[in-house]
């Protein structure tokens, strides 16, 4: 009986994974460039934007850089002159990137078309909490990274307390959800522990709060559209857009807390 129960569990997990992957593909094909649009105008208290913050540790690396699940490839212009390869599965996202002259390649994150130890660094912007199966993705990163190679990952962090918490509470209440349905919730603030379990050495784990001005309905719609909500109905989504739009005005800023984790692959394996 135990093997049959395990088989049923594995089958159920596979079905859920397939459903999520189908949703994710459709989501990005329908909204190409959505993540770049959402973060483009966000700044921290030093007026630094999320993507330059993410790629800063990669500037010291030499050799090819892999941009994992690159979407519209917003990091490409920031790494001009470097040997860069972006991969993504979304035809819509890749089309936006290609139109901007960024030229990524269509490939799955868990089946990278690269040889062993062929990249010096990996950039993972806002993707690790949603890529499945995560263990296979991380195994691929370990395989393609050269010994001593760097991984720089940007992930959403827990909602900021204080001034920004009520703003997100208003959104979540309208959506009628307690948490956003990430398939890999541990790959957020617990990402250092997840990476350590895969053999990475953690160099830095830092949290910053970025803020994006919400001046009217268009900004409100972009924020809500930028959330992964596979089981949320259109009525709740419209209610959340209305709730955020009613709060919006010039000078109003929505907190977007993010975490940057910088890690490296050991030069020797014990």
Automatic annotation (TrEMBL):
It holds the Pfam family Methyltransf_11. Transmembrane segments: none annotated. SUPFAM superfamilies: S-adenosyl-L-methionine-dependent methyltransferases. Keywords: Methyltransferase, Transferase. GO terms for molecular function: S-adenosylmethionine-dependent methyltransferase activity. This is Methyltransferase domain-containing protein. It comes from the Bacteria. Residues 66-152 form the Methyltransferase type domain. One of its GO terms (biological process) is methylation.
